[in-house]
Write a structure and sequence with these properties.
Layout lengths: L2 H4 L3 E6 L3 H13 L3 E7 L7 H4 L14 H19 L4 H4 L1 E10 L13 E5 L2 H4 L7 E10 L1 H14 L3 E4 L14 E4 L5 H4 L6 E11 L6 E5 L5 E6 L4 E4 L3 E2 L8 H14 L7 E12 L4 E4 L9 E6 L5 H25 L2
Parallel strand pairs: 1-2, 1-7, 2-6, 3-9, 7-15
Antiparallel strand pairs: 3-5, 4-5, 8-11, 8-12, 8-13, 9-10, 10-11, 14-15
Helix pairs in contact: 2-7, 2-10, 4-10
């Protein structure tokens, strides 16, 4: 019998049940055999911020000083999604392979992930003439995610692998530290209050969902005024967006935003005039000047170890699996330390 099998199970809590929290919990289960993992959250799918997001794989609102790391996380997630898409479970996970256009008003260099995604190319002059006012653009193949389907499949797998779910709103991580050996904080925008982290700021996003089955490509346009316009076909609906409003905590629909989104999207794709509106949603991206993925070195060495995995801004569904793998690696490092002291 191995040393790991001789030990009592390591007790681990993952706090937060969005895409970041659930993927982290799954990676911990996959990486560490002898552990009990509890998932603690006050909101679960379909009520998380992840559920309302547009769900396109594309690095967005990521910190410039973490580009190298974000690119690695992005490509690890891209590879994971490609594997899911090619599996028999693609529909259950809500993974759709899709190609599309990304414009900008000023000529830019190719993104660092350009050689690693499928079908990447710059748009030629003749193509750009089809989209008046667009001076530069790229075309590539990525993924859109039906996030409720993804989270439902993640939750089902988590439970099947022995995970336990606790519905609870925490006022602080200290409330549960006596019950666990390791806590992994994946609370996103909630970390602003939970940890009093003043670096966490909301970037409010507003979207519209419509029925427009003739739209087969995605379109992204960020203009000189930083207006964010996107048209993203999903499995059942097309998501129209959007906004990226700094410091705005409003989660209610804003009629002016909705009108502005429709106006901008119609300029890109006039046929959306005949689309049927199905619903609207507003949520808060957990923006931070840098993604916080690290062991908390400020905690008492004799107490529960804490790992943080939050602050993914508008890229949570682009980097979630890469971040989850790194978080699980950090947990494994702490498990080794824990074992050495027993």
């Amino acid at each position: 019998m191995s040393d790991e099998e001789d030990m009592k199970p390591i007790k681990i809590a993952v706090v937060g049940a969005g895409a970041i929290g659930l993927s982290t919990a799954l990676c911990i289960q996959d990486r560490i055999r002898n552990c009990d993992v509890n998932l603690i959250a006050d909101k679960f799918s379909p009520s998380t911020t992840s559920d309302g997001s547009a769900g396109l794989w594309t690095p967005f609102l990521v910190p410039e000083d973490q580009i190298e790391m974000v690119t690695r996380w992005s490509m690890e997630t891209y590879t994971y999604l490609l594997e899911k898409f090619r599996s028999e479970d693609a529909y259950r996970y809500g993974v759709q392979l899709i190609s599309g256009f990304n414009f900008c008003q000023e000529v830019k260099t190719d993104p660092p992930w350009c050689k690693d995604v499928l079908g990447f190319r710059r748009l030629g002059e003749e193509e750009l003439k089809l989209y008046p006012g667009k001076e530069f653009g790229i075309f590539y193949t990525a993924f859109t995610l039906d996030v409720p389907s993804l989270l439902s499949s993640f939750m089902r797998k988590f439970r099947e692998q022995g995970g336990f779910v606790i519905s609870k709103k925490l006022g602080s991580l200290q409330e549960i530290e006596s019950s666990y050996d390791i806590i992994v904080n994946c609370t996103g925008i909630g970390s602003a209050e939970l940890l009093n982290d003043t670096k966490v700021k909301p970037k409010r996003g507003q979207v519209i969902r419509v029925r427009a089955p003739w739209i087969k490509h995605f379109y992204i346009d960020i203009d000189k005024n930083d207006d964010v316009t996107y048209i993203l076909p999903g499995i059942d609906t097309v998501v129209l967006g959007g906004t990226a409003q700094d410091g705005d905590w409003n989660t209610e629909d804003d009629p002016a935003d909705i009108e502005g989104i429709m106006e901008r999207c119609l300029k890109v794709m006039p046929s959306l005039k005949d689309s049927k509106r199905l619903g609207t949603w507003a949520g808060l991206r957990p923006y931070r000047e840098s993604v916080r993925l690290e062991i908390d070195r400020n905690t008492n060495p004799s107490k529960t170890k804490i790992i943080h995995n939050y602050g993914h801004a508008g890229a949570g569904l682009t980097i979630f699996w890469g971040c989850a793998k790194d978080a699980a690696d950090l947990v494994m490092d702490l498990v080794k330390i824990h074992k050495s002291k027993m």
